[in-house]
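Quick one, tokens below. Sequence please?
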């Protein structure tokens, strides 16, 4: 590292110690820690903020809480006074990142990328300070590279090192195909670090190889290498699988406040502390104090309500969070939420199975019957036990489970 030894040999200040503690909170790895501390010392000495990069490919239009784990870390470092760069990978999305996959990921079209990118920062700024965030698109420097520049870039990394990447290695050993263009993804992501002169790049644990490529390429281009910080993948609502929309165990940050609040309260007591570390902006000392209170007999639900209130407030505001908390309390007492979907159906008298299906409360009449057998269906607060029940013309509040409601008007 090209950092003045007078700076690195100076006593470590309390501010740098605090910055290191914040940097390390909840992380999987921070590499190399000594280099990052030296960078922090330099920044304190010079007054020049460090450049912290996060790249996201707009592969889907919605961000869930799992994505915000790394955004939260960005915000923490941003609050320390450093420059954060929110990089939208509109160029790399055209390649498709195979990280953690055993096959090529189909690349998105330019139209899909543009459509997704439009919503990305609108959601991310709910976590980041928009006024202190630099937004960049990697097509700015990747498109002008051209064929000659791409060849020169490819010459700076070996096939042997590329094959050290876990997913490439496994696929090669299994005799599965690896397209040449897949090698370009980590190279182009690494080149982003060169173009932005980043001091630190963040990512999930599945991005470690790509982040290290960035360090290597910066050295090849005569730059001081970035440090890398990987955040763990957040377990979803089930507490087992990583949060994923495809697995249905996620909380989207644009979901309604009532839904978000209720979903946070549905997680296990054990998972709650993991979420506190990775999602809460409370200090670690505050979290430890709260954990000690629960260990001493305080109801764990109290701590979970505080977490749900904090997360819902972040994305919807304090008033909406308070209303969501009241809505959840009403539901837990068997009450009906203030706002529920209104549905008009024809054909009265109509069998309860068809009512549930047509009102969107069950995917099929067979599933509706299963729900009735499990005592999970209520009409006007009364449990339905008769699958042959027919509802006459009128208006009814129909409930499935604890969260699904509809005000059904039959004619």
């Amino acid at each position: 590292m090209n950092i003045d030894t007078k700076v690195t040999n100076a006593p470590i200040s309390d501010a740098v110690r605090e910055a290191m503690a914040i940097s390390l909170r909840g992380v999987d790895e921070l590499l190399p820690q000594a280099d990052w501390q030296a960078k922090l010392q330099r920044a304190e000495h010079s007054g020049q903020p460090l450049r912290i990069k996060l790249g996201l490919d707009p592969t889907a239009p919605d961000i869930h809480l799992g994505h915000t784990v790394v955004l939260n870390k960005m915000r923490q470092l941003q609050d320390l006074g450093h420059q954060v760069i929110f990089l939208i990978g509109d160029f790399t999305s055209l390649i498709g990142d195979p990280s953690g996959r055993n096959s090529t990921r189909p690349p998105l079209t330019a139209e899909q990328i543009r459509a997704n990118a439009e919503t990305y920062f609108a959601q991310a700024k709910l976590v980041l300070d928009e006024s202190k965030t630099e937004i960049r698109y990697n097509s700015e420097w990747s498109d002008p590279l051209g064929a000659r520049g791409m060849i020169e870039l490819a010459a700076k990394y070996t096939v042997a090192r590329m094959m050290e990447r876990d997913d490439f290695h496994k696929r090669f050993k299994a005799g599965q195909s690896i397209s040449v263009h897949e090698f370009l993804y980590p190279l182009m992501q690494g080149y982003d670090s060169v173009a932005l002169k980043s001091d630190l790049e963040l990512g999930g644990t599945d991005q470690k190889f790509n982040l290290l490529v960035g360090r290597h390429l910066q050295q090849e281009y005569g730059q001081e290498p970035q440090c890398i910080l990987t955040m763990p993948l957040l377990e979803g609502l089930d507490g087992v699988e990583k949060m994923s929309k495809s697995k249905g165990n996620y909380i989207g940050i644009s979901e309604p406040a009532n839904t978000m609040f209720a979903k946070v309260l549905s997680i296990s007591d054990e998972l709650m502390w993991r979420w506190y570390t990775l999602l809460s902006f409370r200090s670690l000392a505050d979290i430890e104090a709260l954990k000690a209170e629960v260990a001493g007999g305080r109801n764990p639900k109290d701590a979970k309500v505080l977490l749900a209130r904090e997360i819902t407030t972040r994305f919807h505001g304090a008033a909406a969070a308070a209303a969501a908390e009241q809505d959840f309390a009403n539901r837990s007492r068997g009450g009906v939420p203030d706002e529920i979907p209104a549905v008009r159906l024809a054909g009265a008298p109509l069998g309860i199975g068809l009512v549930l299906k047509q009102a969107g409360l069950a995917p099929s009449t067979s599933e509706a019957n299963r729900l009735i057998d499990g005592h999970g269906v209520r009409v006007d607060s009364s449990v339905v036990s008769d699958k042959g029940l027919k509802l006459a013309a009128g208006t009814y509040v129909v409930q499935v489970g604890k969260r699904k409601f509809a005000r059904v008007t039959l004619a």
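The chain has a mean pLDDT of 88. Residues 342-410 form a domain with the Structural Genomics Hypothetical 15.5 Kd Protein In mrcA-pckA Intergenic Region; Chain A fold (CATH 3.10.290.10).
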